[in-house]
Amino acid sequence: MVLFFTSNGGTSSIIRIRFEIRDYSNPAVNPPAIIYMGKDKEENEDLIRYGWPQDVWFHVDKLSSAHVYLRLPANIESWEKIPQELLTDCAQLVKANSIEGNKKDNLAIIYTPWDNLKKTGDMAVGQVAFHQNNRVKRGKYSAYLELNLGLIHVVHVPERVNAIVNRLNKTKIVREVDHEQERVDRIKAESAKRKAEALEKKKADAELARQREADKAARSYDNMFTNVGYEEDENDEPKEKKTGTQLEEDFM
């Protein structure tokens, strides 16, 4: 079973976080983003295996927690450009789904692209490592500071915000997922999209080539009449061409 949540990065209230006041009344993510996680650690194994290239993995640092994934919407260019409000939603959901972490303040939530997750046969169920884990640094930071540490980023969560967690829980949907079929469907859809884009590019290139040929022909046609009736003198200045009678008179 997989739990799905919908995040628009906003709530209907103003939230006080320690000494900061943040207004989450306006949705910051449009269209809303999908956040999901396995119901148990066995399900996490399938999520690790069948993740999508646009998925981003979240986890409480150094504590047991749910493996939470954000599926990047098409309008977010990369995992490094996730809006702060959406990062906050993901971080709060991870904290809320950590037995120990939910009771603590000042947590570090780490996140990284799905394809940076490393799973080997000797690891326990639900355990992961990173392909680039030598670029991780940790420490204490002020409210919701995001750190860029290469392929692994850290978000600091000062405390649980119930308004955010409750909003996300209201969108929760639990369903069975055929991971293999979803992967096949995704690959087919991506292939169809690439073919459609390639066809559109081919049409656009053909139209551009046709337009260039038309412009070239038009310029060539115009040049036929640019200097009609004129010839150049010894100073390369255009002068009126002589008629047949004038040429005969010059010859005589």
What can be said about this structure in brief?
Belongs to the CCDC25 family. The protein is an alpha+beta fold and 252 residues long.
Supply Rg: 32 Å
How many structural units, i.e. domains? 2
Structural class: alpha+beta
- Largest pleated sheet: 8 strands, antiparallel
- Beta-strand segment tally: 14
End-to-end distance, in Å?
Answer: 106 Å
Mean pLDDT: 78
Q: How are the strands ordered across the major sheet? A: 10-11-7-5-6-4-1-12
Q: Could you state the order of secondary-structure elements as H and E?
A: EEEEHEEHEEEEEHEHEEH
Spans where pLDDT lies below 50 across 5 or more residues: 11-26, 134-148
Output the number of helix runs: 5
Q: What share of the residues lie within helices? A: 25-40%
Apparent shape: elongated
Determine the strand fraction and express it as a percent band: 15-25%
